[in-house]
What does this fold into?
Amino acid sequence: MTDNTLPDFQDFTTRVLDWHDRHGRRNLPWHAQKDPYRIWVSEIMLQQTRVETVIPFYQDFICRFPNIDSLAEADLDEVMTHWAGLGYYSRARNLHQAARRICEEHGGHFPQTLDEVMSLPGIGRSTAGAILAFSRNDRHPILDANVKRILSRYHAVDGPPEKQDTQKRLWILADQHTPEVRIAEYTQAIMDLGALTCRVRNPLCKECPVASGCLAYAQDQVAVFPVRKQKKPRPLKSCRMLLLRRSDGFILLCKRPVKGIWGGLWSLPQLDDPELDIIQYCKEIFGIEILSTHDLTPIRHGFSHYELEIAPILCDMPPQKALRLFDDHEYLWHDPKYPIAMGLPAAVKRIIALLDPVAVP
Ligand code: SF4
It folds into this structure.
């Protein structure tokens, strides 16, 4: 096939469906029902996260929040606890907010039109299309990362998928490839083909059902597509995190503001200003005297837009008669000998684990 030849969309679709009948993933827990709520939760969890990682989180989440009402009625704190470890926490906040909106605006029933679904927080066109395709077999194209990769390679699409005009072209192609029947199967099939065969690295072109029509493969240019955007190096930011430790070994956790990184999760006191005097800071902010400070090994954590270097500082307190800080919605004394039940970012868990070999003085 040359660039000017009209691609046979029907042939592509038939091949993808046949392949899926033989090799696709079938027994995923959210496949069992056509419940739009469960499909929605799975689709949100699968954004940025691999299926194998998602499955135990999904099962736990659905066990605790089996329907829209139970999610809407829950405290955000509890929702975040069940999301902790999956990352990209705005997804959990949006799910919770959207569940409340569905209760208020749609009587607790998941909306059925693309526009209504897309108006909910955290749901873009592709996710909305996938939810409606899976739950109602409605015909909507999808364009998640897997589909972008397949179509970019199959049609040798110039330009990075993040660019608006490339995106527009990919949506047109996605629509042309979407069949009129077996929509749910096709939607799962194209996702699976991207995840299992047209993989980011080492795609299995020799086993690919659409290899005969794939332009990138024919031109021996699979590695070139999707065209990559020029990446700027991620800036490095730094901060200090304090492990304020009482004489009984408990450490202070504080709740992060809802907006910003790790919004709404429990964390450690964080100092962004490198000049700030720790002893002074603890006295003024927490009313706590510090006996000694001890630098622990710094850790790095990558966010989508920057890298954060965290210098953990262990601050031991002398035995105190009275403390200004008590457990409440903002602060919590935690015994690091026991597992943490609340939502904590993975980086903070790593820092707390550094305490293990450092005995209380
Ligand atoms: S032939 Fe290779 S590059 Fe083309 S769609 Fe199949 S797996 Fe992807």
The longest helix spans residues 90-106. The beta strands are 236-245, 251-255, 266-267, 270-271, 292-295, 299-302, 307-316, 331-334.
